[in-house]
Amino acid sequence: MITDHKEYTLPSQIHDSSGGLAIFTIAVTSKTSIAWKNETFTDSMNETAINLHNYCTITGFTVLVQRLHLFERGI
Question: Is the pTM of this model over 0.70?
Answer without folding.
Answer: no
